[in-house]
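Run Probable membrane transporter protein through structure prediction, thanks.
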Amino acid sequence: MRRLVLLALVGLGAQLVDGSLGMAYGVTSTTLLLAIGTNPAAASATVHLAEIGTTLISGTSHWKFGNVDWPVVLKIGLPGAVGAFAGATFLSNLSTETAEPVMALVLLTLGLYVLTRFTLWGLKKSELGKPLRKRFLGPLGLVAGFVDATGGGGWGPVGTPAILSSGRLEPRKVIGSIDTSEFLVAIAASLGFLTALGSQGIDFGWVAALLIGGAIAAPIAAWLVRHIPPRILGSMVGGVIIVTNSRTLLKSDWIDASDGTRYAVYAVLYAVWAAAIAHSFRAWRREEASAAATTVEESSERASEPAHA
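Sure, done. The structure for Probable membrane transporter protein is below.
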């Protein structure tokens, strides 16, 4: 019973972060399941079965709050489902250990770009509203879906920074669209696992616990993401990407850093991340104050204009 309560709390916390920042549910939940001895395929299957429910609720909540771009959902979600089914089907015969640090390095670079751009310059308005094309979203969905199924998480960490870096969609709609399209990925991955493994190793009590926790958090996260200013949200997402992938790299065979080195690096990263969010908050306050002053000035000018007969 204690384990089920813990899993429900993990599902709640993971979905709160995932629904607010567009990533982390799968990674967080899978990490816990692996830590208590679940084999990788069963852990990923358990998480994806739970995600069918959490992503449905999350997507519905994001849609109600106006956070979803449906063309993006379809353009990335359908290829993502194909990639997820393939990844789930072949997980038992594939190893992503070699590819993991390469992917982490790519994502770390994207994270640095997202954090820097949103912290220093905010949302790039010149590209905002331009369509995201199939030739970009299709391959992105295919890769993200495959990584998500084989690694137990990855749809958000791969998809969110890539779309954010394009500057064509505001952060809340990036997060809402990624969360909504993940429903298709979760269904495809679950079908792949059930086809390849049956129900072997899957504890449906754990699935239910993760689902209940995630279902509670999903509407809250969708409300939060609508009310967090884009500049601050971009800095928050960028920091999550950097910290997550730095951890992967430091633990990889490429670096294999000692505990002391890793903790020192984490301390620096968290300090920089906090400073970036604080800077974005101050910049947003200045922008709001400037916009308010401009509105007042324009209102005063209109009021002082002589009335026409």
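The mean pLDDT is 83.
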